[in-house]
Amino acid sequence: MDKVVLAFSGGLDTSVCIKLLEEKYNMEVITACVDVGQPQEEIERPASVAMDIGMNKHYTIDAREEFASDFIFPAIKANAVYEGYPLSTALARPLIAMKIVELAYKENADAIAHGCTGKGNDQFRFEAIIRSLSDCRIIAPIRDLNLTRSEEVDYARSCGIPLPPDNIYSIDENLWGRAVEGDILEDPMVEPPEDAFTWTRSIKDAPEQSQIIEIEFKNGVPIALNEDKKYPFDIIIKCNEIAGMHGIGRVDIVEDRILGLKSREIYETPGAFLIIDAHKALEQLTLTRNELKFAEIASNNYSELVYNGMWHEPLR
Ligand code: ARG
């Protein structure tokens, strides 16, 4: 039997993938969840689902510090924002793929599987990394079988896969931000209901009193908050908290996906805006007019490469 490592988030798509890989692809499945700062229950849940359905191997890979220092920090230097979106999901995908490839080598696996559909961006981001680092076969069961959500739910029920807690939206969350799409949000005329947000307060619920914070930068990245030196991960967590409380960081856009499809997405990225705005202000103080103009071009190029999954492109 061929061995496959599945990037497993515990969501509906990847949960269904486990059984599909076993039953339809006849493979031995190893699951792995890469921690890039998603909520604790999204780390625990995949492990317990894997246990419940009798997987014999599940890995939890802690990549939080690496995500902050090797992926988010370069994006801060570049002021990376794509169509108003600070690239939270886009930045995490290459790292997740790298960790999965590493595990596939360690486990001597024949294939790597992911739960992406054929419409989104993540299929490109994952596969660009996997192809550049290995010769593993890539399997995308959800894309191959073109399953709808309700077909997935039926299949999951029929083979006893525990379903994730019901949520009408599709949500992707990590240290750099939270992305929310689907259901009523697909209609751009619909104003996002307050329950779509969890990281940020609405402006009308934000404190009357403003707050001054001091961010110390070194070589283009934050190293201290209010004179308190902190690890990259902790600085970002704290900035999310502070800015979110003050109603900073909500984005509501119809974005252009890699395939050319338009899609409505809501983001909450309070820390990203706080830090990038501070970084831009610092650039305004220190760079010349010509450097600033050039930095903007570089920033746009950088952001597009990251959005498009071209992490390994030398230009990036
Ligand atoms: N549109 C964003 C991107 O491609 C986020 C995708 C995931 N969003 C979600 N709500 N599940 O980077």
Gross morphology is globular
Relative strand content: 15-25%
Question: Which residues form runs of ≥5 with pLDDT under 50?
Answer: none
Q: Which hetero compounds are present in the coordinates?
A: arginine
The largest sheet, given as strand count, sense and whether it forms a barrel, is: 5 strands, parallel
CATH topology of the largest domain: Rossmann fold
Radius of gyration: 20 Å
CATH architecture designation of the largest domain: 3-Layer(aba) Sandwich
Q: Average pLDDT, to the nearest integer?
A: 96
- Counting helices, strands and paired strands, the structural category is alpha/beta
| Count of β-strands | 12
What's the oligomerization state? single chain
Counting DSSP H or I runs of 4 or more residues, the number of helices is 10
- CATH H-level superfamily title of the largest domain: HUPs
CATH class of the largest domain: Alpha Beta
What would you note in describing this structure?
With 316 residues, the chain is α/β, with parallel strands linked by helices. The chain has two domains: 2-159, 3-Layer(aba) Sandwich (Rossmann fold); 170-307, Argininosuccinate synthetase, chain A, domain 2 (Alpha-Beta Complex). The chain is 43% helix and 19% strand. The chain has helices at 12-23, 40-52, 64-77, 88-106, 122-133, 141-145, 149-158, 232-245, 270-286, 289-307; strands at 3-7, 28-35, 58-62, 111-113, 137-139, 170-174, 177-181, 215-218, 221-225, 228-229, 250-256, 262-268. Strands 3-2-1-4-5 form a five-stranded parallel beta sheet, sandwiched between helices. Strands 6-7-12-11 form a four-stranded antiparallel beta sheet. 38% of the residues are buried. The structure holds arginine (ARG). Arginine (ARG) is lined by residues 89-90, 121, 170-172, 179-181, 255, 265. Arginine binds next to α4, β6 and β7.
